[in-house]
Amino acid sequence: MDILRLKSAVLDRLTDEEFYQFCQDHRDLRIERDANHQITIMPPASTESGFANSELTMQLALWNREHRLGRTGDSSTGYTLPTGAMLSPDASWLSHARWNALSEADRRGFARVCPDFVVELASPTDRLADLLNKMDAWLEAGAQLAWLLVPATESVYVFAPGQPMRPSQGFDQELSGEPVLPGFVLHLRELRSR
Hints:
The chain is of the alpha+beta class.
């Protein structure tokens, strides 16, 4: 019997190792797990969202290649947070010091670390309330900077610990990653579909 057909109560009781294997057995799915071990299976990104995510990841990776301050992750990179949640942001960055502090075994799985920087890119089917809750989860887990980008409305939400969320409108602007990402600037206009 396919594990996807099992009752959710069984899936909710998977150990971290079993959950990792479940994800490996279903590589074609985007899977996350919240702090209550509720599993969410997300559909593939739409073509338009995929193009925007590729641009976002490329800009971050090119900055990191130039500055060599850490490691970048794409939308398939999973992190296990202190709450037990396993989340996969659309783009992420982790400093070398924090990456190097991880064990070899931890690096091969869903590393038990929260990235220093995360970006969530809303797709047309995402609910804003769910994404805002996810941003809170990132901050509570230790993210130093988090951006929520909503291409459909060209809305930007910036999150940092101890600061109120900063919303802004329009993709004619550039976002600075300072001080977490020295010198990084995201050119939002490149995320537009037109």
